Amino acid sequence: MLDIQNLQVVFGTGRLRVDAVKDVSFHVEPGAAYGLVGESGSGKSTVLRAICGLAPITAGRVLVEGRAVTTPRGKDFYRTVQMVFQDPYASLHPRHTVDRTLSEPLAIHGEKDQEARILQALREVGLGPSFRFRYPHQLSGGQRQRIAIARALILRPKVLLLDEPTSALDASVQAEILNLLDDLRRKMGLTYILVSHDLAVVAHLCERLLVMRHGEAVEETTSEALRSGVASNAYTQSLIQASQGFTRDAKEPVRSLAG
Amino acid sequence: MAGSPALSEPTGWRAWLLSAEPHSRWQARLGRFYLGWRSFTRNPLAVVGLAIVLLLILVALFANYIAPYSPIVGGDLRTQRLLPPSETFWLGTDDQARDIFSRIVYGSRITLFVVVLVSIIATPIGLLVGTVSGYLGGWVDTVLMRITDIFLAFPRLVLALAFVAALGPGIENAVIAIAITSWPPYARIARAETLMIRNSDFIAAVKLQGASTPRIIFGHVIPLCLSSVIVRVTLDMAGIILTAAGLGFLGLGAQPPQPEWGAMVATGRNYLIDQWWVAAMPGIAIFVVSLGFNLLGDGLRDVLDPKAAK
Amino acid sequence: MTKPLLDVDDLRVRFHLRTGTVEAVRGVSFQLGRERLGIVGESGSGKSQTGRAILGLTPPPGEVTAKRLAFDGIDLLTASKRTLRTLRGGRISMVMQDPKYSLNPVMTIGEQIVEAYQAHAKAGRREARDRALAMLEAVKMRDPARVFSLYPHEVSGGMGQRAMIAMMLVTDPDLLIADEPTSALDVTVSMEVLRILDELVTERGMGLIFISHDLKLVSSFCDRVLVMYAGRVVEQLEAKNLREAQHPYTQGLMRCLPTLKDDVRPLPTLNRDPAWAQ
Fold first, then answer.
1. C8 strand-pairing partners
2. What is the mean pLDDT of residues B233-250?
3. How large is the ipTM?
4. A6 in contact with C at a CB cutoff of 8 Å?
């Protein structure tokens, strides 16, 4: 479904040059969920943004369904790949009603039957028709994220890029959104790429995952392996340990190299 | 009316407006408008400003019913020149024996004409230049902003003077001159707002739906810049009226015998010591209307632009 | 138990807004000795407002009332502004969520620590400087002298937060209030910061109030946990007995988190009972 080959992303030049992603490759099967884990500055979000065209591809290739993507991306690409952003408070236009937000992609692609599609999209994410004409400020964080998911799904894409979709939400709301994403994937046969700093969230949603650090791939592993606590890499091990909560008698964690 | 505590549940049309679950686009939009109106009316000064502006509009619309005399044809030059305010001539008469009140009433049409035309011309130019330059960035931004800088480098009245000198005196040319000189600040504001909006996730989201650049600028960026530009335009109205009056005063705006307020002040200058009302009355009119627009602009800012409030 | 360090009885924080009165904290009571107390709740539970009210940092138009709000026998509600000023930053300190916003961007880190120290202790320039350097060392800065002369934007988030902790602890407070001190940091960095915080608190025998949304983190770090919901404390328990939590909200909060150990799906969600807010 999705093939990332030796992806490299560089921002700026000269003294301001930042190598955000250095030579990352991975492959995602249709219908699979693939996780990218890492701390801030690991380049995990940049990989996602490079796939959908929000960040430049400096070197390497991104293939969707076997074809290399073009820059700028064509309309076909956007019908295949959609994205859900981290902060539901920032990803909805503050002056647009839910109705306008959801009808925009349909209008752009000249789709018919907007009314029915919007109501269906709302139903799919577990919201009733009563939400249709509300403004974002009349919605809770969880409801906003549901609208953002509905917007991403309304064009019936095959791949959903999820950029920390639950990290701005309360724990109980996070559980609801994770369940929703799980359900939708099963029902619609979607392919996910999930970016998160939370190992447990990635392990819950994805089968395979890539641990990243400082723009490089550290280790590719499976959720199974994580659950059984097997990690060949020391950094992955320290992430696992940190996700278990605070421990008084723990060993010193691996110091970050950048300081 | 305003400021009543929201302890009791609203009923009737109010409940419909404030509904958390609107049933149509229009209900949602009206509900939003109503909330804005409620916070606007909490500011008494803003309501005064609105009242002044509405009064200006009404007076301009019904000038021929309100004015007791002709604004252009004067009375008997021997007996009715430069009369002080009295019951027959409420605000006195000028050197041509014309009723000053009637002239001010008709002059409101010219003022409104200037205000409306300038905002119709300058606002879209400013918005478009600002959003396009902010959204596209790169060389487009550089070129557009340098042009804006050039316009900003001249004092408004001086540039307007130059334009009027080139185009010839007259109220239409004065309007064009003022409009041409007043868009750069709007472009600056719109650009600053656009730079903030440009990298936000909701713009990235429409980009990822395949939206074209014009669609993003017109449908998503401009609506967000609009409110701060509207506030700025309203606040600028006072300055625009003063510039128009200034051009009139210098004899470059509306031409005699048109009852333009600035030109009226200019003629009154000759009689300032003995017949003060000839210059003072139109001066007061300019002052009141400018104040009205300023108060209105302040009130609008509180409603439309919560960031800038306080 | 001896006299508590902090005694809070029926604390209420109200905000009088144009649209009516909102009660953010509704009758919170607890006592704190020299121990680590965690306050856990989701957004809007009033946990942060509780911490701010204790320090007298409730933003206007908030109004704080309590039957009793006493720190070491001093009534904080009736104390003079002067007394409050000496307490705040002197004997009670607060670490906020994001060091980027709580450090002054135009002063070096060292100057800020020196200033914090001199504001509460009569000390010469040299002594204050030594104290600040010692403190930076205590928060495990590798090169205290260099960090001393750096500006906040020149350090990473983790270092900034450690500098913040150094600044807050330089006056040797008796009580530290930490409001989400690590949620802006990466996991591995935040463990490091917590470890430093833990050491200092234990060494100096301070009282600590640790405010967080993360039940797992709080229960592993603190001795005792207050669980807040809609402005009230719904449950108070020893951290080690967390598994025996009685309240359905606490139970729900614990269960709804995905874990690495077992794979539950769908995740149990929280059915909010309006009765909890009563």
1. C30, C69
2. 86
3. 0.88
4. no
